[in-house]
Amino acid sequence: MPDGVGDYASLLAQALRQHAGLESLFLQGTTAAAAPPRHDCWPTLSVPKRTSDALLMTLSTVTSEYSPSAVLAHVSLYGYQSRGLPAWLPDGLERWKAQHRDVPLIMMFHEVWAADARDPLTSSFWTAPLQRRIVGRLRMISDALVTTTQRYQQLLGASARSGPQAVVLNVFSNVGEPDEVLAPDERPSRMVIFGGMGSAQLAAQHAGQMGRLLAAAGITEIVDIGKRSQQMPGGIDSIPVVARGMLPAADVSAILSESRIGILPYPNRSVLGKSGIMAAYAAHGVVPVAMQVSHEDADGLNAGLHYMTASAPVASSSALKSVQTKLLEWYRGHALGVQAQHYAAIIRAAIRAQ
After folding, report:
1. Same domain, yes or no, for 258 and 119?
2. Which range marks the domain in which residue 21 is found?
């Protein structure tokens, strides 16, 4: 099934092979019955059930049969348990690590815990302290840490009394990185909505802003990509909407390569570095537009320089080109090939330290 973390892990494995000569095998924390492993070029094992005993047994099997030089764990708590409380994960990893101290354990935290949960009427308010405890335990048994944003780096530093400091690597595009990127004025006058809120929600919540944005950017077509629960509108502010639904990565890449602007579904600027949507726009030269902004600029991304806001859309071709150029410069510093080299250095340093 399409999965952001799984796609990230698979693409990273390919890049580690291509750019660093490192081979991978996968252990998925979902049972094979719930998510049959993909038929790809990687050996893949699955935990028989989500318990610490099952994780220890499966990891021990991997260790004895393959003699891995390192273990890289991709952590997003809700991927391992519906409430984001997978106590079996640190339990199993702690027990395995106690028996295999010579094999470095590297954690990639795609997310941490709901640190901003302030409403006691939401479940995240009550689960956040327990999630923080799980994150702290994982940090303390890690030999190296990677995460996706400066905000998460700060939270990881506060999660436990000891443990390594996290290296920040903003995410790369899961839907490709084209070799050639057209300037905005060389593209069709198309806006793309990719994941996040769909065109129906945009039309309902941001009608006035959408009208001004479409006019300022000269948009004549809107393409909506992603799984939607609401009926698509026929158009927004008289601009027709083409609903494409879920698409393979190559098809998404082709649409993005010929789109002028794209909608960012997040108001929180501190999470843009971990956004696969932002990364996809950046890699393809699509000028992102945030409908709302909150918090502060982070991870080298600045409103008005690397992306537009709907409250102050830019209209001229030169302004769009300037945003595109700065965004591409930001992205290419952590594109997939570059990032594989960073990971390889982290892995090899952790191996040498054992």
Report:
1. no
2. 4-169+335-353
For the domain that residue 122 is a member of, what is the CATH number?
3.40.50.2000
Q: Note the pLDDT tens digit of each residue in 115-165.
A: 777 788 888 889 999 999 999 999 999 999 999 999 999 999 999 888 899
Q: Are residues 88 and 196 in the same domain?
A: no
90 with 121, same domain? yes
Helix (H, G, I), strand (E, B) or coil at 60: helix
**Mean pLDDT of all residues in 292-313:** 90
Which candidate, 95, 9, 83, places its Cα nearest to that of 51? 95
Tokens at residue 1, please?
């099934």
In this predicted structure, what is the pLDDT of residue 198? 81
Q: Which residues of 132-147 are buried (b: 16+ CB within 10 A; e: fewer)?
A: bbbbbbbbebbbbbbb
Q: How many domains does the chain have?
A: 2
Lowest-confidence pick of 31-45, 59-73, 127-141, 276-290: 31-45
Q: Residue 124: which residues within 8 A CB-CB, separation 6 or more?
A: 114, 117
Residue 159: exposure state from Cβ atoms within 10 A (0-12, 13-18, ≥19):
buried
Identify the burial level of 327 via C-beta atoms within 10 angstroms of its C-beta, where 0-12 means exposed, 13-18 middle and 19 or more buried: buried
Q: Are residues 134 and 88 in the same domain?
A: yes
From residue 50, give the alpha-carbon distance in Å to each of 28, 79, 107: 10, 12, 19
Distance between CA atoms of residues 21 and 7, nearest Å: 20
Whether the model pTM is above 0.85: yes
Burial, 297: exposed, middle or buried (Cβ in 10 Å; 0-12, 13-18, 19+)? Answer: middle
Q: Is residue 178 part of a domain?
A: no
pLDDT tops 70 at residue 1: no
117 shares a domain with 48:
yes
Residue 2 has pLDDT above 70, yes or no: no
Give the start-end residues of each E strand in 195-338: 221-225, 235-236, 239-245, 261-264, 287-290, 308-309
